[in-house]
Amino acid sequence: xxxxxxQSDRPRRKYCPRCHKIMKKxxxxxxxxxxxxxxxxxxAADGFLCVYSGVKVDELDPASPWHISFDHPVxxxxxxxxxxxxxxxxxxxxxxxxxxxPAVLELDKVFNGGVFRxxxxxxxxxxxxPGPPVHPADTKxxxxxxxxxxxxxxxxxAPKKGKYCPRCxxxxxxxxxxxARVKALxxxxxxxxxxxVCRYTKMILxxxxxxxxxxxxxxxxxxxxxxxxxxxxxxxxxxxxxxxGEEFRAVIGELARHFRTGAPFNTNIAEFKCWRKxxxxxxxxxxxxxx
Length: 291
Prior knowledge:
Blueprint: H1 17-23, H2 30-40, E1 41-42, E2 47-48, E3 68-71, E4 82-85, H3 86-92, H4 97-111, H5 136-144, E5 146-150, E6 157-159, H6 166-169, H7 178-188, E7 189-190, E8 195-196, E9 216-219, E10 230-233, H8 234-240, H9 245-261, H10 273-290
Antiparallel strand pairs: 1-2, 3-4, 5-6, 7-8, 9-10
Helix pairs in contact: 4-9
């Protein structure tokens, strides 16, 4: 029987030990995993290449951002997979590849002083709920008590005994990190456009529809620092994952360069300290659940 890479040294097994180690984790969509590995195998590199970055994926260290992962090119569409890295799989999330590429290029343009073109990404398969909506009773009570005070964040009318208007208070009320959220909202408020601006795209954020990819969320610029937050669109917050702000910009810039020129992706652009730390915590939690 022929292995995915070369003739197996075990006649009764289809795969060599190296490929078998990967395939035995394919509990579902077995054929799709096999075909993805076949397509990703590169004899010259003696390894499997990521379909998005061209990086030779890591097969041994599950905490590495470059560890092998399988992604659906079209999210939620079974039957087809491609080989990628854990980092890029996390970043792509609910985007199709046709959306992922322009999203990266537009973010890179903004990071270099350009303007984000919002209409180039349709988000046709996006349906993430970043958080539960505020209970209607919360805002109703505040509105009934509204007085002549002004909101410390946006300057709108606020309750007589309160600091924030109902619009701003819905993102602060019932949260333990109130101070960090207030600071993030103050930094994000644009008095000219009368809205909150995404830290990364500079676009006005959605405040009501929490299914919208542009819904306002709060991101930790440094995942190890819980005291600091910035306002960010839900889809960008998801794409940033466990990277620091500097690492996120570096990865986006390098990926954009690879998309434009086809030049090899440089995996040494960042240390990924927070990524590895968070990934190890996930792995430990997973092992404890499985016993």
